[in-house]
Write a structure and sequence with these properties.
six-stranded parallel β-sheet, Rossmann fold, seven-stranded parallel β-sheet, membrane, 4 domains, transmembrane helix, 23 helices, glycosyltransferase, UDP_glucos_trans, 11% strand, 581 residues, alpha/beta, disordered N terminus
Length: 581
């Protein structure tokens, strides 16, 4: 019996021994405004599972403080800043608003600017020999951040087409992302607002018209501008890699409820820590001093808001002395004035999650990026959103529709409006109720987003062909008319058009008693018959009587009812003889 007692132990040991570690390449080249550090938890989880990782990333300070076995990191610079290039004016210092269609052009320019910043940086030039040697290794899986729909460094990876490629996207589902996945486009422009538009979920006619223009204009911009510029930087077939699977940073509590292709897996909250870390003592002591709780502020560029941003913040803090304010001043040019209820800090992403997880936090002021809003929903903290660029306007509209907070526009910001918005989220009960429901849906999942991401990554390593049938290349080969069934709809449309024309003609005849053709024929004046000239030897005729009789005959013929015959030629001759007599 003793050998049987060891059977469970042997099975357990065998299961551990059967696990094979993989060599994984991780490429992250997105700019800072796209938060390239959000993928770090996935890399850490794969490293903890025993896999070997080579990470080439533009994330700020992602390198571990101490050497970790199986982890090799190369940091690249991406200094592209879309805010400073298009939305911020230094002299005079102000925020520049931009129309939605213009922002669509900016969105596609981000691809070019970000890629150029990475490929032409001094950091990449100095590390090129070492990187080239590293990237020639055999990899079992390639993970790439395709938030903007491209991958700039894939050109340096030899033989990547024979390896499974897993895409990470920090944004929403886009047609460009679906084309990389070779999946059917399930985005309906009549129901799904464009991912950088401020349109409501229930769009009217003009919103739907504008929405269709944006969806149909974007591929033209990519074809006629973006691809032409990128073709001069790197090879086109490498910059738009074919993906087997995409991990998407969306969830129905904040994003749309829509049909997702089987190759798209939602992992919103991937970056959120399962358990917050203890806060430093001085922060805890500060939070315990205020009976109305804490308001956390993370609003970079607030100093550009019509010259009133900093004054509005100062007024808001002064008007609420029983509230404590923790202000992330990392990107401010000058520190705010000291106040007894204000704590100014340089806060990174990890510390922000720890602050929002405190039970004392009653409000969160931000610009509406997806990561901050997901953290607010995860901790049921109402928000004041001031959107400034691109997808932030779409996120702000979803916040407004679902009562997750209050939305302010840049042209509405002043000393009174910011304080009024804060009072609303602190005092109105319906925000807390809506956030409780959103938190419950966001947290209640069969499996955590991080575990789901790790499972799919390891499944893709073990069975590279497992997700092969998820792609639909035949759908991509269809032209616009076939893909949208316009050729099929043309036949019934023509039949319906013919039926409408026939019905219109029937109604016209029914009410007028004559068809349109008969009416047009009757309206044409008939030419008068010329009288025959008499010969010189004939007797003189009464010319006046001849003309009168001819006119009478023609008038009689014109006044005959429809279906009756005209006067026979014999009667006409009799009339002429009577005329002569």
């Amino acid at each position: 019996m003793k050998p049987f007692c060891l059977l469970p132990l042997l099975v357990l040991l065998g299961s551990f021994c059967s696990l094979e570690t993989a060599n994984i390449l991780c490429l992250v080249t997105t700019a800072k405004h796209s938060n390239p550090g959000w993928s770090r938890p996935l890399f850490d989880a794969l490293l903890a599972k025993g896999h070997t990782l080579l990470v080439v990333s533009t994330a700020p300070n992602p390198e571990p403080k101490k050497q970790v076995d199986g982890f090799l990191y190369h940091h690249l610079r991406n200094d592209y800043d879309v805010m400073k290039k298009y939305f911020l004016l230094e002299k005079p210092r102000e925020y520049m608003d931009m129309a939605t269609l213009n922002q669509l052009v900016v969105w596609n320019e981000v691809l070019v600017g970000s890629c150029r910043s990475v490929l032409f940086s001094d950091t990449l030039s100095s590390k090129m020999p070492e990187l080239t040697a590293r990237l020639c290794s055999e990899f079992d899986l390639i993970i790439t951040d395709v938030t903007q729909g491209i991958e700039c460094l894939m050109d340096f990876v030899n033989g990547w087409r024979s390896k499974p490629v897993l895409g990470l996207s920090a944004g929403k589902l886009t047609p460009g992302l679906l084309s990389l996945l070779q999946a059917e486009n399930t985005i309906n422009a009549a129901r799904i607002p464009h991912y950088i538009s401020p349109f409501p979920q229930k769009m009217g006619f003009w919103n739907r018209l504008h929405n269709h223009i944006m969806y149909y204009t974007e591929p033209l911009i990519r074809l006629m501008a973006t691809r032409l510029v990128l073709s001069n930087i790197t090879k086109m077939e490498n910059i738009f890699p074919t993906l087997q699977l995409v991990l998407l940073n969306t969830h129905p509590t904040l994003d749309y409820v829509q049909n997702l292709p089987p190759g798209v897996i939602e992992v919103a909250g991937l970056h959120i820590k399962s358990k917050p870390s203890p806060l430093p003592k001085y922060i805890r002591q500060f939070t315990e001093m205020f009976i109305d709780g804490i308001v956390y502020i993370n609003m970079p560029y607030i100093q550009y808001m019509n010259g009133q941003g900093l004054e509005a913040m100062d007024t808001m803090i002064s008007d609420n002395p029983s509230c404590g304010f923790i202000w992330n001043v990392e990107q401010l040019d000058q520190l705010p004035a000291e106040k007894p209820n204000l704590l100014a800090l340089h806060v990174d992403q990890s510390l922000q999650q720890d602050i929002l997880a405190m039970q004392y936090v009653k409000g969160f002021l931000n610009h509406g990026d997806s990561f901050s809003l997901q953290e607010a929903i995860h901790n049921a903290v109402p928000v004041v959103v001031l959107p400034l660029k691109l997808e932030e306007f779409n996120n702000a509209q979803r916040v407004k529709e679902r009562n997750l907070g209050v939305v302010l526009q840049a042209n509405e910001l002043n000393q009174k409006s910011l304080s009024a918005a804060l009072k609303r989220i602190l005092n109105e009960v319906h925000f807390a109720s809506a956030l409780y429901q959103a938190q419950l849906k966001f947290r209640t999942r069969p499996i955590s987003p991080l575990e789901l991401a790790v499972w799919h990554a390891e499944q893709l390593i073990a069975e590279p062909q497992f997700f092969k049938n998820f792609a639909q290349t035949e759908a991509l080969a269809q032209n616009f008319f076939v893909a949208n069934s316009l050729d099929v709809l043309a036949a019934p449309f023509l039949v319906l058009l013919a039926a409408v024309v026939a019905l219109g003609n029937f109604v016209f005849v029914l009410f007028t008693g004559r068809s349109k053709d008969q009416l047009s024929n009757e309206e044409v004046p008939k030419k008068r018959k010329k009288s025959k000239k008499c010969s010189k030897n004939s007797s003189p005729m009464n010319t006046t009587l001849n003309l009168d009789v001819t006119d009478i005959t023609e008038d009689l013929n014109e006044e005959l009812l429809e279906g009756e015959e005209q006067l026979p030629r014999g009667e006409e001759k009799l009339l002429e003889e009577k005329k002569v007599d």
